[in-house]
Specification:
With 251 residues, this protein is of the alpha+beta class. It has seven helices and eleven strands. It is globular and about 60 Å long. The model has no long low-confidence stretch (mean pLDDT 94). Bound molecules: iron/sulfur cluster (SF4) (2 copies) and FE2/S2 (inorganic) cluster.
Length: 251
């Protein structure tokens, strides 16, 4: 621990290079977020994690997810101004994503039930708030199948050239992290369809439950140097097999 700062008048220690949102949450302070995931690089897109920071005698309102902590800063995680600015940002997000439960719930906590702004008509990916979390997670996993397309008010999220991406392995990570649940994914017991491609599942050799897509398995085994049989069993059957082995050990 080599950075000392204050959050809401409480002295907190952090590692050099840590982001303020992560530090504050670890210390027990609540800050809302939509576009944040601790595993991927932050881009400060949704702006609901705003906090006030006093650094070098200057006070500023800043997004905490992409603010690297500095020694001696004094942070306030809630105030009238912060509340007001978060509410404005949530109003903008709600106009883009009126059908997103998480955005609606968060907006309601800030007193916003209906945005004053005109709804954004997005036939491409309805309810997408362009937070790029899906793009960053996909890139972090080593696939880089998604990207931002266009600029300004033409900006969209999708597959380059709008064609099924060769590098997509159907892992579903983008679907899992999307804060507005706007990515379409369909699953049966044998396959998963996402971003215009259908991926067959590897069935568990014991119980037949889907383990992982075949393409994702091949990618993981090759890139993480895992044994060929690593995905032969689902987690439940792996654990059952481990317990059986443990029980059969002579004591
Ligand atoms: S399902 Fe495809 S696009 Fe989504 S994170 Fe996995 S590889 Fe990327
Ligand atoms: S699809 Fe979801 S995760 Fe991706 S940019 Fe849109 S809202 Fe964010
Ligand atoms: S969580 Fe910080 S800008 Fe979205």
């Amino acid at each position: 621990m080599d950075v000392k700062l204050k959050i809401n008048d409480v002295e907190v220690s952090a590692q050099k290079g840590e982001y303020l949102l992560d530090v504050a949450r670890k210390a027990g302070f609540e800050i809302p977020s939509l576009c944040h995931h601790e595993a991927v690089r932050p881009i400060g897109s949704c702006r609901v994690c705003l906090v006030e920071v006093v650094a070098g005698g200057k006070t500023s309102l800043t997004t905490s997810c992409n603010y690297v902590v500095e020694p001696g800063i004094e942070v306030t995680t809630d105030s009238e101004l912060i509340h007001k600015m978060r509410a404005v940002n949530l109003e903008l997000l709600l106009a883009r994503a009126p059908g997103a439960r998480r955005v609606r719930d968060l907006a309601a906590r800030y007193g916003v039930s209906r945005p004053r702004f005109a709804p954004v008509d997005d036939n491409w990916l309805p309810n997408c708030i362009l937070c790029e979390l899906c793009v960053r997670v996909c890139e972090h996993q080593g696939h880089s199948a998604l990207s931002t397309l266009g600029r300004g008010d033409q900006k969209k999220i999708g597959l380059p050239f709008n064609r099924p991406a060769e590098s997509c392995v159907g892992c579903g990570a983008c679907y899992s992290v999307c804060p507005t649940e706007c990515i379409l994914m369909k699953e049966t017991r044998t396959n998963r369809t996402i971003w215009g491609q259908t991926f067959d599942f590897v069935p568990c050799k014991e119980c037949g439950a889907p383990v992982i897509t075949e393409k994702h398995r091949d990618f993981a085994i090759k890139n993480q140097e895992l044994p060929e049989n690593y995905y032969d069993l689902c987690e439940a059957c792996k654990q059952a097999a481990a317990s059986k082995r443990f029980a059969s050990v002579a004591w």
